[in-house]
Design brief:
- The protein is 26% helix and 25% strand.
- It has six helices and 15 strands.
- The protein has an eight-stranded mixed beta sheet, with no helix packed on it. Strands 9-13-12-11-10 form a five-stranded antiparallel beta sheet, with helices on one face.
- A hairpin with a 7-residue loop joins strand 6 and strand 7 (114-116).
- The longest helix has 18 residues, at 181-198.
- The two termini are 32 Å apart.
């Protein structure tokens, strides 16, 4: 698993022990170990690993969002006592209850609560398993290479846009293609490939919708939005100064600007 930033905010053992004692609940051991080793953060941009939250679900109690039939692992009256320990970017919440064995998913787009058994797996393997179950064929572990973004409050970002005039060629048919979504997507992929060749990334993730070049020197990454064909984002924490060429971040900016991305 690639760690985007070296500035992890790991949890303290005594903090988790005190939390369990206060709420009379047993946290999954693999989840505890992950928090102790890596802290809170986002895994592969799909799963948020969070500190236990005993307040999150209280506001949902009156809305009747889920069904509590015989198959449900919890009752309606237990909802406000549930502890959220993670969520997906789509709003699905992973929770537990002191009187329920295992955990359960409270889905964002369904009324059916799904039980989860805590298996003897590292938390990362458990997350991959659940992501496959939640997203089916849409989750490709090969495409979603494992990386973790710690929540440390240090990340900065910039959003740059592709200037279409830089994509144009002299030939009329080339100009027409360059101004289509397909043409802009092809151009962004070309720029991403050139940037990766010039500055070899520590991790390179390419999907039909997005491209990400991760660099240790940034404590972050460059993200190409292929889906819309016009946006490139820089996510970074620090950029060590190179006396001759300025910061590495400056070098990346210059290369992108030269390609018409400003």
């Amino acid at each position: 698993m690639y760690i985007v930033s070296s500035h992890k905010q790991v949890c303290v053992l005594e903090e988790l022990d005190a939390w369990e004692q206060q709420y009379n609940v047993k946290l999954p051991q693999a989840y505890r170990e992950f928090l102790l080793g890596y802290g809170q953060g986002t895994y592969t941009n799909l799963w948020h690993i969070e500190m236990p939250d005993a307040e999150r679900l209280k506001e949902f109690a009156e809305y009747g969002l889920w069904e509590y039939e015989q198959e449900s692992p919890i009752t309606a009256s237990q909802l406000t006592e549930c502890i959220v320990i993670g969520s997906t970017i789509d709003g699905d919440m992973l929770a537990l209850h002191r009187d329920v064995e295992g955990g359960f998913w409270l889905p964002r787009h369904s009324e059916q609560i799904t039980a989860v058994s805590w298996q003897q797996l590292p938390w990362e393997d458990f997350m991959k398993q659940e992501l496959r179950r939640l997203y089916g064929d849409a989750y490709d572990s090969a495409a979603h290479k494992a990386y973790f973004e710690p929540w440390n409050g240090r990340q900065q970002h910039e959003f740059l846009m592709l200037r279409s005039e830089h994509v144009m060629e002299q030939d009329a048919s080339a100009i027409e293609f360059a101004n289509t979504l397909e043409g802009k997507q092809a151009y962004l992929r070309e720029i991403a490939a050139k940037l990766a060749e010039q500055y070899v990334p520590d991790l390179n993730i390419q999907t039909p919708y997005t491209g990400k070049l991760f660099y240790r020197a940034l404590e972050g990454y460059v993200r190409f939005n292929y889906a819309y064909g016009n946006e490139v984002a820089l996510f970074y924490e620090s950029s060590p100064v190179d006396a001759a060429n300025g910061t590495f971040l400056d070098q990346l900016r210059q290369q992108l600007h030269a390609a018409g991305i400003e």
